[in-house]
Amino acid sequence: MTASPRGAPAPSGDTASPPGDGPRPPEDGPSAPEDDARLIERSRSHPDAFAGLYDRHAPSIHRYAARRLGDHAADDVVAETFLAAFRRRGRYDLARPDARPWLYGIAANLIGKHRRSETRMLQALARTGADPVTDAIDRADARVSAAAVSRRLAGALADLPARDRDVLLLVAWADLSYQQVAEALSIPVGTVRSRLNRARRKVREALGGSDPTNVHEGTDA
For 144, which of 9, 108, 148, 177 could close a Cys bridge (C-beta 3.0–4.6 Å)? Predict the structure, then answer.
């Protein structure tokens, strides 16, 4: 029996076809980007892979935190959010391909530690009209109108209970669906709806019926 170059027995019978003859396996096309869950899964054995999750979501989380707390505090929130996420990645539910609710939930908890600073900032804006976070706000964002930094809106947001403000701004500014907000805050979807409706009603009352948060009742978009 003749040995193959790798030491395995050569097949008996017909002579093997020369290279180039016969069907070839299909060539792989461009690979699709990994979803968040696959990135997190891979990072468990290759920690450097977690940088892909940071690159994908850190800018939007920074923008959200800066709207609420200012640019300097947002830097800390983003750093702490991804540090906490990295440490908890072993417990992430890999059945969820989109990690945004998980990441925003961590960020929301961290923002909660700055609750008094956020309220004082909103109250100052309501009194003076001087917005300490104007430079951090993307004015081109179609989801938030220019009225979002108005004195009356700032006052309305400052008067909201913290949990209602979280729901409203996660929908209006972070662009999360009701279901995603429920996952982020670990509350039922029905609670998201009731808190959002209550917050929107108070904002409309403060602004004479208008709703610059651009949130539509009854939608999950």
Answer: 148
User: Is 149 within 8 Å of 134 (Cβ atoms)?
Assistant: yes
pLDDT, tens only, 58-77? 999 999 999 898 888 999 99
User: How far apart are the C-alpha atoms of 165 and 171, rounded to whole Å?
Assistant: 10
Say how many Å lie between the first and final Cα of the chain, rounded. Answer: 68
Whether the CB-CB separation of 1 and 13 falls below 8 Å is answered with no
Q: What is the pTM of this model?
A: 0.73
Distance, in Å, from the CA atom of 29 to the CA atom of 113, rounded to the nearest integer, reads 47
What is the tens place of the pLDDT at every residue in 180-197? 999 999 999 999 999 999
HEC string for the chain: CCECCCCCECCCCCCCCCCCCCCCCCCCCCCCCCCHHHHHHHHCCCHHHHHHHHHHHHHHHHHHHHHHHCHHHHHHHHHHHHHHHHHHHHHCCCCCCCCHHHHHHHHHHHHHCCHHHHHHHHHHHHHHCCCCCHHHCCCCCCCCCHHHHCHHHHHHHHHCCHHHHHHHHHHHCCCCCHHHHHHHHCCCHHHHHHHHHHHHHHHHHHCCCCCCCCCCCCCCC
Of the candidates 104, 60, 69, 67, the one whose C-alpha atom is nearest the C-alpha of residue 84 is 104
